[in-house]
Prior knowledge:
By secondary structure, the chain is α/β, with parallel strands linked by helices. It has 12 helices and 7 strands. The protein is about 50% helix and about 10% strand. The longest helix has 29 residues. About 45% of the residues are buried.
Amino acid sequence: MSVSxxxxxxxxxxxxxxxxxxxxxxxxxxxxxxxxxxxxDVRHEVAQALGAEIGAAAPSTLAETSAAADVIxxxxxxxxxxxxxxxxRGDSLLKNAKGRVFINCATIxxxxxxxxxxxxxxxxxxxxxxxMASSITQARNGTLYLMIGGQPEVFDAVKPLLTVLSDEGKxxxxxxxAGQAARLKALVxxxxxxxxAGLAEGLGLxxxxxxxxxxxREVFGQTGAASRVLxxxxxxxxxxxxxxxxxAAHAAKDSGIALALANKAKIEAPLAKAAYGQFxxxxxxxxxxxxxxGVAELTFKGxxxxxxxxxx
Length: 312
């Protein structure tokens, strides 16, 4: 397989899905000298605003977006959205796709990545997954942790672009063929969500026991209770600052993907089920757009849907 692309200073980059992550990735690529030629979003006004800011076109169709770029990064919400942008009929990125490379960054079911790779190949294009284990700040600063799945030759062709998004490549990991990186990403988020729900329970119980939560977090950090989530979410849980970097709705979705993989592998995953239950409950009671740290709203006495927390 031979993948031919223009040199980085001539490469045209398109972004499909310019919410919090996609918009910041576009800004980062522009800062690094890449030509972001087209940005697309189902909320056309959002794409237009970003396009005006960074000097990119904001096509009204997916087909026009493919035509305007050599490499297209997709950052969509879920399986349904991914299947829609790569539809075999109607408006689709697969139109005008010959020779294009699609880099698909969303956390979606591994089987969808495999289907997209096949559909891209049939259209004369290429596809890889670049699953992100980071958030908004890292997208803007170019320090995303990226797990890559797909053909090695395709990865090599877009590696320079991925390098500027992943701390000069220090956070760039090739995992395997299509679907493999998505499987690993599902496990990353499964464990993260378990840790987040567990921390919220521990801090909620500590509060009920009238322990000083600042001291509790410090002791947690110095003992076996330490975790990355403690660093990123512990103080926010205490202060009820749930400004959204990774929403509870996305946590529920991603835990659901991991549970589907567990069921397929015939593996019991009771902790993953419990964490999924908590994040799904947040969605059900109207807290799904809070950050995942908002799961503490379910574990602290006196909190909950009637006392929705936001940024202080």
